[in-house]
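User: Some background: our group keeps a shared notebook of sequences we're curious about, and every so often someone picks one and asks for a predicted structure to add to the entry. Today it's my turn. The entry only has the sequence so far, pasted here. Could you supply the structure so I can complete it?
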Amino acid sequence: MDFREYTIDKITSITGLDRETIAKAVETPPEQKLGDLAFPCFILARTLKKAPPVIAAELAEKFSEDENIEKAQAVGGYLNFFYSRTAFTKNTITEVLEKGADYGKSDLGKDKTVLVEYSSPNIAKPFHIGHLFSTAVGHSLERIYSQLGYDTVKLNHLGDWGTQFGKLIVAYKLWGDDSVIEKDPINELLKIYVKFHEEAEKKPELEDEAREYFKKLEEGDDEATTLWQHFRDLSLVEFKRVYDMLGVSFDSYNGESFYSDKMDEVVDILRDKGLLTDSEGAKVVELPELGENTPPCIILKSDGATIYATRDIAAALYRHRTYDFYKNIYVVGTPQSLHFKQIFAVMEKAGWDWAKGCEHVNFGLVKFPDKKLSTRHGDVVFLEDVLNESIQKTCEIIETNSPNMENKDEVAKKIGIGAILYTFLKNSREKDIVFSWDSMLDFEGESAPYVQYSYARGKSILRRSDIEIADADYSLVTTDEEYTLVTHLNAFLDAVKDAADKNEPFYVNRYVTILARLFNKFYNSCPILKDDVPEDVKKARLALVKASCQVIKSALYLLGIEAVESM
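Assistant: Of course. Here's the predicted structure to add to the notebook entry:
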């Protein structure tokens, strides 16, 4: 039973007000001592021609006998509802235990498809730490939407087209060594790519040669296409190794190259609709509706070549035709905000109503002290190196604190990778991240290790007991610490909905961090397996432990973080 909905229904029945009006008016009090739900009676003052405090007092009497609501208390112009702790606790814990991993799921998105484009690294360039922001946010959002019943499609829009491939082909023909590249593809391709730019500063004609090779690639030249495909295949093998470490997978790797033969149609459509205008030889779409300082969206450059905007519009049109999406989400950095505003506006001007379902989910920067992320100059922080270093540092902590732990390597991997993912999802995605090992691997603060340890603590308690909890008496777990924990368990689905509404995994991250904190407070305040604890109390508290573990694990899953059974 949903106690909030139950209370709203009863207020509706008593007052005769429109249910939707009441649902919008009810509030969750800021403190538990003020109740579980509050109804502001001010909205009834004009209708009833009475002061709100008088209305609140009269309504309170009509809730005097209700097995689900312990009391309705008039406080000023508010009516504060206190649920029956026993009924609410029994309802919540029973639902968690019965549904298990399905607790917190919804059919809100039934028969609606959400596309999530994320990660999208560039072929033949390193998978650096900056790519993790998009990967972590997108991976989490896909799971969040899936939790709410949407059909989700995971898209990796690879950067596998453009003049940089002409540069790479030239670099390969001049300095490439197949035997070396096969052993360490990304590093070696990066080296020759960097060398190209160094040499091009001295020999500008190399840039012309690179443009010529990309033109050959666009025209389907056998040699250029074979080399490009080779670079792409090598890169995907490397990327997949990192994705496997993160537990990330995709339904499609269609990159920019996939849409290279689909752009002429876009140009024709925009031309036929009279949207293209000339601007210094280029074909553009003017966008005055976005503000007078907004530049036009370039569709064709002065030499007739297409650009990112043309490809992205072609991709959106293809996705609409293929998936008939409800939402088409692009998890791409903040610097691309203008680009997405432009292409979304162009698509709407083209009369495509489905374009309103396209959303740019932006994010901040990753900052390292004294380090910059510039592939062109070869000064880059490889993501795989960071993940391995986090695992190694976690191993050292475990070796110091728990040298006899079983499966140390497996635990270190889950904690080390979880620590990094948590860091990228702990705040609003628009905030920049300053990389800090101390905060990431802090087992006491706001971190993945802290949440994972809380889960492992609960599982340890359950393993040490053979008490059957099926018929627990939930009237025995209604202390403030226990009830606050239960109310938070009950709020899991709300956190998931908030995360989807705002495309912010941070809401789930914050939820599970608070849940871990409340669980530890309960653990420290309410003895569970001590000899002097009555058997029936043990049973009820063990049920609460089991429910807490289930929700912690489910919430971590939505963040892409694995739970650890023992630490």
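Suggested note for the entry: The longest helix spans residues 222-246. The chain has three domains: 3-83, 113-259+311-367, 383-558.
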